[in-house]
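quick one, 389 residues, struct below
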Amino acid sequence: MPHPLPSPTTPAASQERGRAVQRVTLVAIVTNTLLAIGQVIVGLAANAFSLVADAAHTLSDLITDLMVLVAARRGADPADKNHPYGHGRIETAATLVLGAVLGAVGVGFLWSSGLRLQNMEALPEIHGAALAMALLTLFAKEGLFRYTLRAARRLRAPVLEANAWHARSDAASSLVVAAGIGGSLAGYPFLEPLAAAVVGFLILSMGLRLCWRALRELIDTGLPEAELQRLRATITATPGVVGLHDLRTRRMADKVLCDAHVLVDPRISVSEGHHISDAVYLRVRAAHPEVQEVLVHIDPEDDGVLQNMAPGPLPGRPEVEALVSELLAPLALEPRRVQLHYLGDRVEIEVLLPEVPPAGLHALKERARCAIADRPAFRRITFHAHIAP
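---
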């Protein structure tokens, strides 16, 4: 039994998955080619036109198999300048097309069954050899369906799963043909259109579900709430993470892309915030192999709340440093470091100074208090200094 492939979180793993999808698809192509040839030969020889029509349906599978093959090759291509997130959406588009094909096949069965029910007396007599070929096709198609579906779930390839259900639709077609041939031989010709109607509903339903799944992915539908809760738990358990908001996810074929706004202590350094961001990224990738990309935005506070505050423009570093220089000018001091904290809708300033006499520090604080009294953008100015004896 083949072992499951690792999650395609690297280009090499993604390409290996693409090759595996191609191998499965090539098996389908060879099977459909042999079956179509056999159906045409036996159908013409046995005067079984329904078997010839089923061969045409099998040939339509060849076209979709080739579509899957191309999608698997292109979908495994690494990211490039024009496709920075990779080419996984090619699989999604192919799944949408195959779902539409399944829906059309289902409608075709319903239409055909209606016509046959109205014209049962016009059904031709069929040779018994056609029944054997129809049954052989049925078992081969069912086997191909199970093989492809198992591979699709192992590889987490929706486009391959769509192709598997297309194989099942062709198996259903062969079942209809076999039922029709058997019914004709047994004297019950009504069985063929009745079976066609039932199978048509099933195929149409599956095609609509596949189309809906692909459309949800194309419009960037997020993960279910249960999976989001698992992601939230992983992120909030990371050391240094204070909170989490604006978690967004979307699918791209078998991969998941994630954006997260992570709340941290507002007074830590930029490098520590970056370290926390890296820790979140590595933890999510380790605990959730299906997540290929994690964009972590470090926030000192919930910026969703700040948007409701609608703050005005806050002063930048040049304006702040000019104010600090103005305050220090009477003491002829140069700051060792000026640290800014943009919290809420105002700015907090921390100034690290060399030694300052007690009287000078007191006067400096008083000047600072007066300076920001008429500047609502400033919350406070704090001075850190050694007190000179």
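The radius of gyration is 34 Å.
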